[in-house]
Design goal:
- The protein has 4 helices and no strands.
- By secondary structure, it is mainly α.
- It has 2 domains: 51 residues; 59 residues, no CATH class.
- The longest helix has 28 residues.
- The protein is flat and about 50 Å long.
- It starts with 19 loop residues before the first helix and ends in a 6-residue tail after the last helix.
């Protein structure tokens, strides 16, 4: 009985074989443990917030590489991440929440066709060096 077909390996990182994403996840886990150990304090909240941010950045980096290499489409994930970034920026500028929401939706809506085209080009092999 044959198993599932082998999936192509994840695209190589621009920094080579250095395990940056894995180390980032390890630091995020350590910060999360620190935050849980200090629950109810400002340090605990900062630890959990930093762990969440680092974990998201590590996952997003891998999603970007997969998408731009044509391995797997991550269009909605990347558009949502852009929307969250725009929304956060709007909130930092003290804009009303409704304005932040609309800005996030517009940014994500613009990003979707751009990301789809980028993935289609990569999947056809147009982004690879000749």
């Amino acid at each position: 009985m044959r198993g599932a077909p082998a999936r192509p390996r994840a695209p190589r990182a621009p920094w080579g074989g250095f395990p940056l994403s894995e180390l980032t996840v390890l630091v995020a886990l350590a910060l999360g443990a620190f935050g849980v150990a200090n629950l109810g304090t400002t340090r605990g909240a900062w630890g959990i917030g930093a762990a969440t941010t680092l974990g998201c950045v590590a996952g997003l980096e891998i999603a970007i590489r997969e998408h731009l290499s044509g391995r797997r489409s991550r269009t909605m994930l990347l558009a949502g991440a852009l929307g969250a970034l725009v929304s956060g920026g709007a909130m930092l500028l003290a804009l009303p929440p409704l304005v932040a929401l609309v800005a996030a939706l517009v940014a994500a809506g613009i990003a979707v066709p751009v990301l789809r085209r980028a993935y289609a080009r990569a999947a056809r092999g147009e982004n690879r060096a000749r």
